[in-house]
Write a structure and sequence with these properties.
Low-confidence stretches: none
Helix content: 55-70%
Largest sheet: none
Strand content: under 5%
Shape: elongated
Structural class: mainly alpha
Mean pLDDT: 92
Distance between the termini: 62 Å
Number of strands: 0
Order of helices and strands: HH
Radius of gyration: 23 Å
Number of helices: 2
């Protein structure tokens, strides 16, 4: 996290490691919480879809005959 107290040292270290491109995004605490909840919901949805896909892949797979 970059604060007013560590901005100068962060900026110098970042530019040394990555070049001149330095961009900041500002997000309020409330918006960060919302973003975090949305990402959790997306992860849950993707995990659910993987389960559904796995189920149908097994369901339509050819049965082995003995």
């Amino acid at each position: 996290m970059v604060t007013q107290n560590n901005y100068v040292s962060f900026s110098q270290r970042f530019q040394k490691e990555n070049g001149d491109g330095l961009v900041f995004y500002a997000v309020s605490v409330r918006d960060y919480e919302t973003l975090s909840l949305n990402m959790s919901e997306i992860k849950r949805f993707l995990d659910q879809q993987k389960g559904i896909i796995s189920y149908y892949e097994l369901a339509v797979a050819p049965k082995e005959s003995k």
